Amino acid sequence: MRTVIIGGVAGGMSAATRLRRLAESMDIVVVERGPYVSFANCGLPYYMGGVITDRDALLVQTPASLRTRFNLDVRVNTEATAIDRANQSVRLVDHETGREYTERYDHLVLATGAEPRALGLAGDIPIHGLHTIADADALVTRLGCPAAGARAVVIGAGFIGLEVVENLVHRGVEVTVVEYASHVLPPLDAEMAYPVQQRLAKHGVTVRTNASVASIDGGTVVLRDGTTLTADFIVEAAGVRPRTELAAAAGLDLDARGGILVDEVQRTSDPRIFAVGDAASKFGLVDDGPALIPLAGLANRHGRTAADAIAGQPAPARPALGTGIIGVLGLTVAAVGWSEERLRAAGRAHRAIHTHPLNHAGYYPGAESMALKLLVDPDTDRILGAQAVGGAGVDKRIDVIATAMTAGLRASDLADLELAYAPPYGSAKDAVNMLGYIARNIAEGSAATTQWHELADAVAAGAFLVDVRSPAEFAAGAIPGAVNLPVDELRARLGELPSDRTIIVHCQVGVRAHTAARIVAASGRAVSNLDGGYLTWRAGTAASS
């Protein structure tokens, strides 16, 4: 039996090595069109930025090491040009010798990955990508001795684009980032991305949103609104598209976005052919529909799934969440599942919960605040997504929520998770528990909330806005039209509240306002808590202005 795997790196090599562990006698051939079959492509921005100094550390395995340890026939600089499904063979070309030949297979695994979206730009400014080792080498060479005040334009403010931005800043480059969407990190919601944009500005990065590059002319970058930017070089990081031309030419089924359609064990529409990694469509957990999620963890996991199926030990892959994380100039940003913007665009009912907890006990030195957002199905209490921005502790909170989503826990169940606690690491009521308490209160009807983007319409419709923070906090910054009634004075001053209007209460983050809302509710008045408090309202309105 022979399995041919087209493409190395994450998905292809995971399939190959797992298959060898399961089938010692099988012939396993791996062909990779580039010179490196197994490298840490997620580390490329950090090598470019000088954080990773040893280039060889990025090369995880070589053809020789894979032959020695796993008895794999690995052929680099070898490209698959056609699949003959009827004869179960692949047409290959060796780019070093020019030799063309055919390789038979019993099973075929497509791990062709993704490639950068072509923007079609050309001009007299050097343009770089950052997708391969060669791309990183080219940027390292350019940055080896940059002239004082070197300037770069980065196109795209998604995860890869901002990793590039951060590492260029480390190199002392003056950076402008251009993003087509209305805010940086489009997978996040606007109010959650706003602190990231603030952090970029603090480090001297110019951010142009709702913008795109029209042309390169006379040594300047021209945006579509006519703005011109001066740059010594450009880095394109405007996303990727699946490399599925080979699959399409072979007549395999693709989804609407061009990904290769697979079943629960990564089998394509041809039972002898499997697809893994960035080229393959995933089953999304939120809607069980096809999704393109180019993440290394999923590529490795699905490579293993395909190998298990080929070896006769099928184990269906779990639906994908799209869990991601990035560091941006000292901030940690993470997300899982769908954003509110995506839910709204799909017309899906949802409830948002914002909190601003500390990463550990406030009385222990070094406590840092973070912003958390949970998205919940209001009918089933199912968790639909979450986002987090802050310093230490962001990663573990998103990982806990991602685990809860995989396990099918409801939002209210987060309140009952028994999480590790000691003052240096968390709080007795962990940030994740607090999300669960809020979700449970809302689900049980003991609390009602108003979102930051709903506030203006609610006030215009007659709601009475009460700021229950201290007078000093109110003086330092307040929502226009709010009346200041500190929570500790509220019981004695209930007579100052109208009885025929809905009362919306808010504090800095929502905790004191919850207490205030219970006091107001006990007086017989209709009341709602401004979700996430003043901090969320301020971030949301600033991001929208």
Rg, nearest Å: 26 Å
Averaged pLDDT, please?
A: 94
Stretches with pLDDT under 50, minimum 5 residues:
none
Tell me how many strands there are: 32
Question: Tell me, what's the shape?
Answer: globular
Report the helical percentage.
25-40%
Structure commentary:
Helix content is 28%, strand content 24%. It is of the alpha/beta class and 545 residues long. β26 and β27 (383-390) form a beta hairpin. The N and C termini lie far apart (62 Å). The mean pLDDT is 94.
What's the gist of this structure?
28% of the residues lie in helices and 24% in strands. It contains 15 helices and 32 strands. A 5-stranded parallel sheet has the order 5-2-1-9-20.
Present the secondary structure layout.
Elements: E1 2-6, H1 9-22, E2 27-31, E3 38-39, H2 44-48, E4 59-61, H3 63-70, E5 73-75, E6 78-84, E7 89-94, E8 100-104, E9 107-110, E10 114-116, E11 127-128, H4 133-143, E12 151-155, H5 159-170, E13 174-178, H6 190-202, E14 206-208, E15 213-217, E16 220-223, E17 228-230, E18 233-236, E19 240-242, H7 245-249, E20 273-275, E21 282-283, E22 290-291, H8 296-310, E23 324-328, E24 331-337, H9 340-345, E25 351-355, E26 370-376, E27 383-390, H10 394-407, H11 431-444, E28 449-450, H12 455-460, E29 464-467, H13 471-476, E30 483-484, E31 503-506, H14 511-522, E32 527-530, H15 533-544
Helix pairs in contact: 1-8, 6-15
